[in-house]
């Protein structure tokens, strides 16, 4: 009986020692920033198009407006119980541009306790606002978030209202034994920073690397940092991140044309960019959409040319220990479109991939010289060469 007790005691002690040495995920806190130019930090972000209505919202207490009429919209977010914040557009004078904005910044469902936000810039058809602050009341206390808005109005029947994220989190974190710079973006402008999705527009964005580096990944189940796969845990409000090395990850193989030198795919697992070896590579098991593919070749002067395509379609599954064949890349077709209007001819040149995706072409990392168009009449009397222009 004594021996059995000693054995159980040894097992318990061993388990405690193993647990004590197991790497724990620690919260690594980030700092919040806001700017009316927040999208430039990421290099461009999509916008939410908010539906406008001239009808006053029922049950919402409103402030004393100045303009002849107003417009109302909802900004959707899961960070409040109602699922949205009310916004009202007003103007400084009875008539004129809509240059005042009211938003339910405290989330109480009313606007009568809000102060008007004035546009920081107005143009003939546009008024710009931001960063406009709102407060989320969460379990740990109030959380600040910012939005940028653009109100477009060219006439009574052509008005549009756009919202984009005006805030982000960033700071220094430890990955393994190294210090890295981390940046979090609310890419889909819904107030949260941990969104995963098969749709690229609905994935939030994350950077982990050197400060100022442009490489950005999808927020997902995994993130590859210097060749090591981690499982990130991101606070819903973006305030912190946890990282743990991904263990026991199941993979499947992909088969690509051997001409493909780079292939990128994303989904809820995150964003992965691989360099196939003889047309093969691997990805964690899951569903993906094709982000881009690329083919690189050198010419006789050793200049590096790169073809890159971003298919709008291209969803595929990766299963464990199975190979998935993906058809991308060549042939790439160059087209010349011609149109005529009142005796004037216009020509446009495009390159398309096998899935009709637009093709980007670069030479040594820069856009090459635009192609030329040679036009010669049947009798040879007209013979001229023109150069296409980008943009």
Give structural notes.
This protein has 391 residues and is mainly beta. 6% of the residues lie in helices and 48% in strands. The protein folds into two domains: 137 residues, no CATH class; 142 residues, Immunoglobulin-like (Sandwich), CATH 2.60.40. The longest helix has 20 residues. Strands 20, 21, 23, 24, 25 and 29 form a six-stranded antiparallel beta sheet that branches. Strands 2-12-13-14-15 form a five-stranded antiparallel beta sheet, with no helix packed on it. The chain starts with a helix and ends with a strand.
Largest sheet: 6 strands, antiparallel
Quote the CATH topology of the largest domain.
Immunoglobulin-like
What would you say the CATH architecture of the largest domain is?
A: Sandwich
Instruction: Indicate the multimeric state.
Output: single chain
Provide the low-confidence segments as ranges: 1-22
How far apart are the first and last residues' alpha carbons, in Å? 86 Å
Number of helices: 2
Number of domains: 2
Core attributes:
single chain; 391 residues; mainly beta; Immunoglobulin-like; 2 domains; six-stranded antiparallel sheet; five-stranded antiparallel sheet; 2 helices; 31 strands; 6% helix; disordered N terminus
